[in-house]
Design a protein that fits this description.
With 186 residues, this protein is mostly helical. It has one domain: CDP-alcohol phosphotransferase transmembrane (TM) domain (Four Helix Bundle (Hemerythrin (Met), subunit A)). The chain is built from six helices and no strands. The longest helix is centred in the last third of the chain and has 27 residues.
């Protein structure tokens, strides 16, 4: 099989999937420079695969499944490792994980009741993912400085939680109100 240019977005998403387990281990081992580099590199692949897919019309059903799966695995596993190391408050991890679990359950219920459909990311969902990525990068940078977390970081944690919850509610409303074979989007 020959690799075509149109496969690059999916390969980048797949690479992000592969990065999550070693990143989790590196975080638990306290190897922060490696963790930051790996996480930041994965974040760049997220932006790049979306850009390539849209710019060159290389969207695919595989990419529509693989890209959000890679995002979720990367973000949730990073939050989990940071909770296990005592860095991030557990309530924030459970908020992020709960939103993703509720969305996954919503997709399964919609699929079972109404058949196949496409979940198109909303603007708020994109803001949510970007905010979570920025929060995790900021957290790793603060850890690298080996100083106490500033008070404003708590406000950032609360902002991430609020946007995460709002994004989850938005999707659940869309799942509930959608008609058969109608994409869930803006």
């Amino acid at each position: 099989m020959r690799l075509r240019s149109s496969h690059w977005p999916n390969l980048l998403s797949f690479a992000r999937l592969l990065v999550a387990p070693p990143l989790f281990v590196l975080l638990l081992e306290g190897r922060l420079w490696w963790s930051l580099g790996l996480f930041a590199g994965a974040a760049v692949t997220d932006a790049l695969d979306g850009f390539l897919a849209k710019r060159h019309a290389w969207q695919s059903a595989t990419g529509a499944f693989l890209d959000p799966l890679a995002d979720k695995l990367l973000i949730v596993s990073t939050f989990a490792a940071l909770v296990l190391t005592g860095t991030v408050p557990p309530w924030l991890f459970w908020t992020v994980w709960g939103r993703d679990a509720a969305m996954g359950l919503g997709v399964l219920v919609c699929y079972a009741r109404r058949g196949p459909f496409q979940v198109v990311p909303t603007r708020l969902s994109k803001v949510n993912t970007s905010l979570q990525i920025l929060y995790l990068i900021l957290t790793l940078v603060i850890l690298l400085r080996k100083q106490p977390f500033p008070v404003w970081w708590i406000n950032c944690s609360a902002l991430v939680a609020v946007i995460t919850v709002l994004s989850g509610i938005e999707y659940l409303i869309r799942f509930w109100n959608r008609k058969n074979h109608e994409p869930i989007s803006d």
